[in-house]
Amino acid sequence: MGAIAEIYADLDADVPEGEFRSAVEEKVEEMGGLADEETAAMLIAHEVADGEVEGVADIEPGMEEAKFVAKVTSVGELRTFERDGEDGDGQVINVEVADETGRIRVAFWDERAESAAEELETGTVLKIAGRPREGYDGIEVSADRVEPADVEVDVDLDAADTIAGLSIGQSGVDLTGLVLDTGTVRTFDRDDGSEGQVRNVRVQDETGDIRVALWGEKADRDLGPGDEVQFADIEIQDGWQDDLEASAGWQTSVTTFDTGGVPSAGGDDRADAGTGDEATGLGAFAGGGGDGENDEDGTKNVESAGDPDSENVGEAVAEDGTESGADDGPIEFTGTVVQASDPVVLDNGSETMRVETASTTHLGEELTARGRVTEGTLDADEVF
């Protein structure tokens, strides 16, 4: 076995031998005869090994370069921005990736951004080398070199929207669950001398539970055990005793629902409790809510939800026990997008509405959805 083969055999990195030997030849030429092949091979081996991390969770700001393999979990939008000086416009796209240890955002710039927008899709496994830094929503990596990787990364994409599927470093996460417990509001001084506040609530879904830190005005939200609540755009951090913790900051929208999943007015008031045996959705796995009211003939009263100008939009239960729509006509609901994922949630300032639509929406966008409301969700035929 030659010297290059021996050095390559000792190299603990996922680099094809042919690629390694080509790099050695380039290094010999680059150094103009100052290094033989063995010396060049040792230099290349050092460069390859430097920056290799065991997993995403080991990436830290200040590293000169991080090299890792991860699976694409989401691809953002390609954005164009103005550069200072006369360099013209730049482009960037943010891609969320994950491995078995955690998740992280990778920023692709300019030509790489265009290629990422055209070629990357959820589930693609990539070999990434880039510079870690402290970004707006935590650690992110600015990509220098990226290529497809023919390896298996055990990340369950279907579990991404559940508590069990959360991992450190995620941002822009939407989370729905039942409130188990609420803490007291705590105040503190920040660097500018002003007073801040925070309150912790513990939220559970079918897969587990997590503590959510409500910062600023959100600490005053009227939340209590049994409330179904949805947090849009939260960040997942390393909490106390190595537990995960969700952070609901200024960018997070908070919406409360009744136990059937119907948005409450404005997302500010506690929702009405569901029924014991007939509770659905999140209320079912937690044992239901409060007692409902029955008519003398035993049929269930169902309150309307949705457009405040329409009556009995929700489905009623007829005397024979079958469900029938009290209003079969379509309605229109106009509001601001406070959740852009599935389902879309619109807020008109006095109430919120879940909307099922295949249209692409963006946070903060004002839309009108037209369609029929079933069980508190508007099935949109048209969004404009």
Describe this structure in words.
With 384 residues, the chain is mainly beta. The protein is 12% helix and 39% strand. The chain folds into four domains: 47 residues; 93 residues, Nucleic acid-binding proteins (OB fold (Dihydrolipoamide Acetyltransferase, E2P), Beta Barrel); 90 residues, Nucleic acid-binding proteins (OB fold (Dihydrolipoamide Acetyltransferase, E2P)); 85 residues, OB fold (Dihydrolipoamide Acetyltransferase, E2P), CATH 2.40.50. It contains five helices and 20 strands.
Number of helices: 5
The total strand number stands at 20
Strand order of the largest sheet: 1-3-4-6-5
Silhouette: elongated
Q: What value does the Rg take, in angstroms?
A: 26 Å
Oligomer: single chain
User: Structural class of the helix and strand makeup?
Assistant: mainly beta
H/E topology pattern: HHHEEEEHEEEEEEEEEHEEEEEEE
- The CATH architecture of the largest domain would be Beta Barrel
Report the sheet with the most strands, covering strand number, pairing sense and barrel closure: 5 strands, mixed, barrel
Mean pLDDT: 75
CATH class of the largest domain: Mainly Beta
The level of helicity is 10-25%
